[in-house]
């Protein structure tokens, strides 16, 4: 009996050892001698790799435990081998290691998980080649981030912000994050499609919420899983956008389309590249899906966290408010609202926004794939392996940002971050194309919030969720109260 028990125990130990090393044998053995120059780390269990430890950390109250465990096991190398989202991967956690990954387009291409590519679209910025990315970025830059466009958007954004804040102050308890996401979605829908239809926006925003939960989920297309639900949401969104594209084309062809302004849809329909080629419907829809998804999620979350942080730190709130009051005092009597020029003068508010972006780190990582064998800091990155630049580790590096978990806009006084130490919108040629529009939205909201309102959270110390983005589990249940005009 004892012999049977010992044999069974030995078999279990052997099986565990085999399973723990299966990924290494499968992915590292074909590398030959190059496997000895791989970064430290492990590839985890078959199929799931290190995803279990990643999900366990990010579904706890200590998401840093995932990277901290690697550091404690393998040292402060700044680069580790792992197996994430179905692929052998290299995680880089320092500005020095991330430099080549984010700036060398000859060595790296997008390497997003299958779930992201399928849901955002194969014609979006997340999936296309460097050449196509450069072409699309050039075609869409002016309508999104151009000076003239931003100046025009300022008035509309301000109108929506003023009416929304007034409405929320009369509603009692609200899910502050939910309402902010609706606000930013309404803004982005107007900018891109000139749409202000409440029923359409409500329906689309719900579909986008489902889509976003599946973007970084495991690509398990079975009922009940986030990816399966997100695929259905994408199908509904594509169908809706296809009908919008068809209607716009038909109206323009019939000559009965009169635009109040040229929106992104018009720009995408009109644009012709250097070879005389127009965008296909599939390309237009994927670009719209990408911009609309990114354009309201990050802005809404950042607005919420900025308000939360400022309410928790009255000294920063008052300093930011004083700047906005001074801007209002300087306005000529004939000026009705905020101008783009004033936005550019909001130096301290810009620091508040940057500090919020750093602390929250809306996108914790970006995905690339090695197009060839690459050397980073003396370690080998094999061709075809994914590389994850872990923004969260860079933003929380105490050598770059002392007391990194502390919200402190004053740290930005007369401070210019060194290259690749501040990455809220990525870096290199694939820098987020809507970054200027996002910061403008956030600034306009905070301008009016600081001047006239305060936020009272119902559960100020409530639990947080960290996937897909950091947020309170109650979506920041709060009361918005008017506190008098400046």
UniProtKB/TrEMBL annotation:
Q: Which UniProt keywords apply?
A: Heme, Iron, Membrane, Metal-binding, Monooxygenase, Oxidoreductase, Signal, Transmembrane, Transmembrane helix
Q: Does the keyword DNA-binding apply?
A: no
SUPFAM superfamilies reported in the protein's UniProt record: Cytochrome P450 (SSF48264)
Pathway(s) the chain acts in:
Hormone biosynthesis; Plant hormone biosynthesis; gibberellin biosynthesis
A GO MF label: iron ion binding
- How would you describe this protein's topology in the membrane? Single-pass membrane protein
* GO biological process entries: brassinosteroid biosynthetic process; brassinosteroid homeostasis; gibberellin biosynthetic process; sterol metabolic process
Has keyword Metal-binding?
Answer: yes
Question: Where found, per UniProt?
Answer: Membrane
Q: Where does heme bind?
A: 432
Main location, first listed in the record: membrane
Which superkingdom? Eukaryota
Q: What's a GO cellular component annotated to this UniProt protein?
A: membrane
**What's the cofactor?**
heme
One Pfam family assigned to this protein is p450
Signal peptide from the UniProt entry: 1-24
Q: Which CDD domains match?
A: CYP90-like (cd11043)
Q: Which Gene3D superfamilies does UniProt cross-reference here? A: Cytochrome P450 (1.10.630.10)
- What PROSITE patterns does UniProt report for this protein, alphabetically? CYTOCHROME_P450
**Protein task:** Catalyzes three successive oxidations of ent-kaurenoic acid giving gibberellin 12 (GA12), a key step in gibberellins (GAs) biosynthesis. GAs, which are involved many processes, including stem elongation, play a central role in plant development.
The record's similarity note reads: Belongs to the cytochrome P450 family.
User: What is the protein name for this chain?
Assistant: Ent-kaurenoic acid oxidase 1-like
Q: What is the lineage of its organism?
A: Eukaryota, Viridiplantae, Streptophyta, Embryophyta, Tracheophyta
């Amino acid at each position: 009996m004892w012999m049977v028990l010992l044999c069974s125990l030995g078999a279990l130990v052997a099986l565990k050892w085999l399973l723990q090393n299966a990924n290494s044998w499968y992915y590292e053995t074909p590398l030959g001698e190059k496997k000895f120059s791989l970064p430290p780390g492990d590839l985890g269990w078959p199929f799931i790799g290190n995803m279990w430890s990643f999900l366990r950390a990010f579904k706890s109250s200590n998401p840093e435990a995932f990277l901290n465990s690697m550091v404690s096991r393998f040292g402060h190398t700044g680069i580790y081998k792992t197996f994430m989202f179905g692929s052998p991967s290299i995680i880089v956690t320092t500005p020095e290691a991330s430099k080549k990954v984010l700036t060398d387009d000859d060595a790296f291409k997008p390497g997003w998980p299958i779930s992201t590519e399928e849901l955002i679209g194969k014609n979006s910025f997340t999936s296309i080649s460097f050449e196509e990315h450069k072409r699309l970025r050039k075609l869409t830059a002016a309508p999104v981030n151009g000076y003239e466009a931003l100046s025009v958007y300022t008035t509309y954004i301000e109108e929506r912000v003023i009416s929304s804040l007034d409405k929320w102050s009369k509603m009692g308890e609200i899910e502050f994050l939910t309402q902010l996401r609706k606000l930013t979605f309404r803004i982005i829908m107007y900018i891109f499609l000139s749409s202000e239809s409440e029923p359409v926006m409500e329906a689309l925003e719900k579909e986008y919420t489902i889509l976003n939960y599946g973007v970084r989920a495991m690509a398990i297309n079975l009922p009940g899983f986030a990816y399966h639900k997100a695929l259905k949401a994408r199908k509904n969104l594509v169908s809706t956008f296809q009908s919008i594209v068809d209607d716009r084309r038909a109206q323009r062809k019939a000559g009965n389309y009169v635009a109040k302004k040229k929106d992104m849809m018009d720009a995408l329909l009109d644009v012709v590249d250097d070879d005389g080629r127009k965008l296909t419907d599939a390309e237009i829809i994927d670009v719209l899906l990408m911009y609309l998804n990114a354009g309201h999620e990050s802005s809404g979350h950042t607005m919420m966290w900025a308000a939360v942080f400022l309410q928790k730190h009255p000294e920063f709130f008052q300093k930011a408010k004083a700047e906005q009051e001074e801007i209002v005092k300087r306005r000529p009597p004939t000026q009705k609202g905020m101008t783009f020029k004033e936005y550019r003068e909001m130096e301290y508010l810009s620091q508040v926004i940057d500090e919020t972006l750093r602390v929250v780190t809306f996108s914790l990582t970006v995905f690339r794939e090695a197009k060839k064998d690459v050397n980073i800091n003396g370690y080998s990155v094999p061709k075809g392996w994914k590389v994850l630049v872990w923004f969260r580790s860079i933003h929380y590096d105490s050598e770059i940002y002392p007391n990194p978990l502390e919200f402190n806009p004053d740290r930005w006084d007369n401070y210019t971050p060194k290259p690749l130490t501040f990455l809220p919108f990525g870096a290199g040629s694939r820098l987020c194309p809507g970054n200027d529009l996002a910061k403008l939205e956030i600034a306009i909201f905070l301008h009016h919030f600081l001047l006239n309102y305060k936020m009272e959270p119902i559960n100020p110390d409530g639990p947080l969720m960290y996937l897909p983005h950091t947020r309170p589990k109650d979506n920041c249940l709060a009361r918005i109260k008017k506190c008098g005009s400046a």
